[in-house]
Design a protein that fits this description.
This protein is an all-beta fold. 3% of the residues lie in helices and 41% in strands. The protein has 2 helices and 35 strands. The strands form 7 sheets. A 7-stranded mixed sheet has the order 14-11-16-21-18-19-24, with no helix packed on it. It starts with 6 loop residues before the first strand and ends in a 12-residue tail after the last strand.
Length: 488
């Protein structure tokens, strides 16, 4: 990699990726324990204990350049990082000090359905003044996150990272950083509920929010701020390291309505994991990450101070942080040009799974049509809304192929609870994921191994599309009396 105005950077060769034992940062959780550890901020973990309390409450927080009143976990944005080890158990007591009922969804975890935090499907929401104990095994290592799944609460401050370490980590690196992306409007332009009411009051869309990468209209709302680890570009998060260190970045998109194009100035990145699962390393300059997706990448850091930029796709804005390895290096400006954003972009076809992660061949195919009703603010699955949802019936032990046919005029990041699926790339197996982006006029297939009985949400992770109806169910066996009207 050639040098740049920020210093000399570089990618990581394939030789470096799987060369020995786990060498994470001093802040990472080590050893084999069966409880969760929690940290005050990404990258700093407390000693693991016999569980933790996660208190949902209103708070005034600083986003670096502005203070806002919002809803939080433990008075922080993002909420505390939770670290565990694959095969261990997370114990987290949700204490609801909000003026509304709430839940916690553990995004991407193949979880006991009673712990999934999906109100009306797998648990009743926790009422104000009450508590609920989440106790669940984390079967797979990887990068995940947690968030409220009630109404528009995700578009407040109710989210945080969940990092599950691999006790047999094959990836060699020196330290790691968690990078949590978010779009922000709460306490600035009303509340997310106000934004939803405005969307529902009109049939018009803001056609100035456009992205070629996303196939047209990119979003519903122009959020005023974009954050990395809860901080605005005016007072950015700074990741401090040293030249020559191989660093793992765990990138999470917790936004409600924004896809981001991510690059690290002066460096190439080698993507090693998608939605928690390993993939044959792909060296690129940038990647597009939809809401709910996670990517891990490694790179060998050069000497200097480098911009870590998440371009808000189609919105003319960006989230911004700094990776600093030299104390005296000049700090890059928040609007600095980052050529990597326009270079080699990651594609799903680049993400080749491990042979061990290949799912069985499907025995049947189900087509799910992603649509929009003429109102312009009702988003459907097989022309059904969340109030009368599509239910895809499956049986335990089978593998099915879901063909998602996007006939709507916008892209959708589709997320399945309680499972991972295998994305089909042409005629071959692609990456294991739990969230996948489908552009307008695109058909995309995923294979699902049905090994976790329950009633599981299957929905668009654009929060506003979800609230406007794009929510269905993957359900095992015949429907219960409560959901007998739901069929495919």
């Amino acid at each position: 990699m050639n040098g740049s105005a920020w210093g000399s950077g570089g990618g990581v060769s394939r030789r470096l990726l799987f060369t020995g034992t786990f060498a994470a940062a001093a802040s990472a959780v080590t050893g084999s324990f069966a409880e969760a550890a929690v940290a005050d901020r990404p990258g700093r973990a407390r000693r693991p204990g016999r569980g933790m309390a996660l208190r949902a409450k209103p708070a005034t927080v600083s986003l670096g350049g502005r203070k806002v009143a919002t809803w939080t976990y433990d008075g922080m944005v993002p909420g505390p990082i939770i670290r565990a080890t694959a095969g261990g158990v997370v114990r987290a007591r949700l204490v609801n000090d909000l003026p509304a009922e709430t839940t916690v969804h553990w995004h991407g975890i193949r979880i006991d359905p009673r712990m999934d935090g999906a109100p009306g499907y797998t648990q009743a929401p926790t009422k104000p003044g009450r508590a609920f104990d989440y106790v669940f095994k984390v079967p797979d290592p990887g990068t995940y996150f947690y968030h409220s799944h009630v109404g528009t609460q995700l578009d407040r401050g109710l989210y945080g990272p969940l990092v599950v370490a691999d006790p047999h980590e094959p990836l060699g690196y020196d330290e790691e950083f968690v990078v949590l992306l978010d779009d922000w409007l709460d306490g600035v332009d009303g509340t997310p509920d106000d934004a939803l009411r405005r969307l529902n009051s009109t049939t018009d869309h803001d056609d100035t929010l456009r992205s070629t990468l996303l196939g047209g209209v990119s979003a519903e709302i122009r959020h005023p701020f974009h954050l990395i680890n809860g901080r605005m570009a005016e007072a950015p998060e700074v990741f401090n390291s040293r030249p020559g260190r191989v660093v793992r970045f765990r990138v999470i998109n917790a936004a409600a309505d924004t896809a981001y194009r991510v690059a690290l100035g002066g460096h190439r990145m080698t993507v090693t994991h998608a939605d928690g699962f390993p993939c044959g390393p792909a060296t690129v300059d940038a990647f597009l990450i939809g809401m709910g997706e996670r990517y891990d990448f490694v790179t060998r850091l050069g000497a200097g101070a480098f911009p870590l930029v998440a371009l808000a796709e189609g919105k003319g804005a960006r989230a911004f942080a700094i990776v600093r390895t030299t104390r005296t290096a000049r700090r890059p400006s928040r609007d600095v040009k980052v050529p990597e954003l326009e270079r080699r972009l990651l594609a799903y076809a680049d993400l080749r799974p491990r042979r061990a992660d290949a799912l069985p061949r499907p025995s049947r195919t189900v087509t799910v049509t992603l649509g929009m009703r003429p109102s312009g603010n009702e988003w459907t699955l097989n022309d059904r809304l969340a109030a009368d949802p599509l239910r895809v019936r499956v049986e335990k032990g089978e593998t099915i192929r879901i063909v998602m046919d996007n006939t709507s005029p916008m892209w959708h990041p589709m997320h399945l609870h309680g499972h991972t699926f295998q994305v089909r790339v042409g005629d071959r197996r692609g990456p294991r994921k739990d969230t996948v982006n489908i552009k307008p006029r695109e058909r995309l297939s995923v294979d699902v191994e049905c090994d976790n009985p329950g009633e599981w949400m299957f929905h668009c992770h654009n929060l506003y599309h979800q609230e406007q109806g794009m929510m269905g169910v993957l359900g095992y066996g015949p429907p219960s009396p409560r959901n007998r009207h739901m069929t495919h």
